[in-house]
Design a protein that fits this description.
This protein has 586 residues and is of the alpha/beta class. It has 23 helices and 18 strands. The strands form four sheets. It has a seven-stranded mixed beta sheet with strand order 12-11-13-14-10-15-18, sandwiched between helices. The protein has a six-stranded antiparallel beta sheet with strand order 6-5-4-9-8-7. Helix 18 (437-443) runs antiparallel to helix 20 (515-523) and helix 22 runs antiparallel to helix 23. The protein is globular.
Length: 586
Amino acid sequence: MKPKLKMRLGDLLVQESIISAEQLQQALSQQRDTGHKLGRTLIDMRAISEQQLLQFLAHQLNLPLLDISKRPMLAAVVQLIPEVQARRFRALAVEDNGDNVLVAMSDPADLQALDYLEMVLAPKRLTIAVAPEQQLLEAFDHLYRRTEQIAQIAGKLEEEYAADKLFDLASLTAGDSDNETTVVKLLQSIFEDAVQMRASDIHIEPGEKVLRIRQRIDGQLHETILKEVNIAAALVLRLKLMAGLDISEKRLPQDGRFHMDIKGHKIDVRMSTMPIYHGESVVMRLLDQSAGLLTLNETGMPPAILARIRKQIQRPHGMLLVTGPTGSGKTTTLYGILSELNTAERKIITVEDPVEYQLPRINQVQVNHKIGLDFSNVLRTTLRQDPDIIMVGEMRDHETVEMGLRGALTGHFVLSTLHTNDAVTSALRLLDMGAASYLVASALRVIISQRLVRRVCYHCGVEYQPTVQEKAWLASVSAMDFSRARFKVGTGCQSCNGSGYRGRIGIFEMLELDEAMIDAMRSGDPQHFARAAYASPHFTPLAESALQYLTEGMTTIEEVAKLMEDVSELPPGPAQAGPGQVETEA
């Protein structure tokens, strides 16, 4: 049964003194210009909040007001309403009760939408509930996955090649054939699904009998399996064309890049191919250029570390290292620092492989190993370009390390990254790479080490009491008092795709070299350096920072345990136990 208002919405709002008659007239005038619905116009004018409007409509129409962000939903139920119409009418099928379907709407007074829903859901009856529009929009992105569409297009593509199982190179490169059109549609669906799910990488992996398409979301891989394994060559061929790679070369790895506009997002795609037993594996890193760069404030650094970093980056010379494994957010931190330093008074040059984001006023150099334009060669020239600040994408070899350190000693502020587990071992790694101890002691000033851990979903996160085993594990790894900790865990909802996690948060440790550490470094004594580092009053190890986030309910014991398995041992001491003493079997 369709819910209907006895009076027009605007008149009802005036009658109930929720808005004034003047506001109604202003909204009606604005509505004629924009074409938006009256409710949305009033919200945009700030005459009424969305929550007020929804509560009013729910009361007037005697409808329930739902919070769908925490509600688990079945894909089969959601698909009862086609995505295009669901987005058009802001209507989401929430529950199928056999005889009737519960549909959440942001505007339950939309008669055109109600007529359509009754038609598409027939013979089932329509039951309406009210839900916030923003929650509906987020639900559309998470629930209308492209997995079914991907499977259907893959099946169609397989049929088109079923005759001889051979791919017609000419037809694939022509651009207007049916085969090419189907390949493009399949790739478009794959990319759209990845962007919707906030994936950072797409993996295409042909096996003997199946084709695996995997997405890395919040650091974890999620797999879709297609039976149409023989379409893999067509996908790889099309991607190679897009990236400008050699389509005839299948025996050697290749790297390329291309740009795409996907659902309003400008995506920079970094592509790598590798020959494997059943064809070629493709991995694509997705960089959303339209999202913009994160500032230092947006990286999630604790205020104390943020203040210390801002003080350190004002130095006229010295070296700052950002360390951690691949995918730990090092580049994001470096770009955040560069954004703060990027002023008209400073000359900044970066040497990168690849250049991930283009920054105004900064001279960015793309490394090209094929022509000998590597880090050390570019860095040598960079020092003659009168820079104030130099950013080297990565310290990869002895020559690059030594030139970076010498640049830091000759009046330049040098930023770079290093693949190490923590801040303490980072300084020692420079010695292992052949740098002279006196150079490291004289030039290195700050080391920031970081990790990313998954964040408890803010929609479905609930209070949680650790088990006896988990409490014992926590007591074994830290002397912290967990009696007042607010542990949380995600129960799984549509917003987090059932994982209980949504997004990631950075864990940071910052080591500022003091006199004791510099003396130990100069003498080349790694044990003395480590003891001096852990004795520093301002140094908080990664493990302790992660445990602090755990007590605040931002992440889980599972995530902290995985981080602790990866970081180095803390020195033994009565006041603190380190990750090296973690019993990971608990």
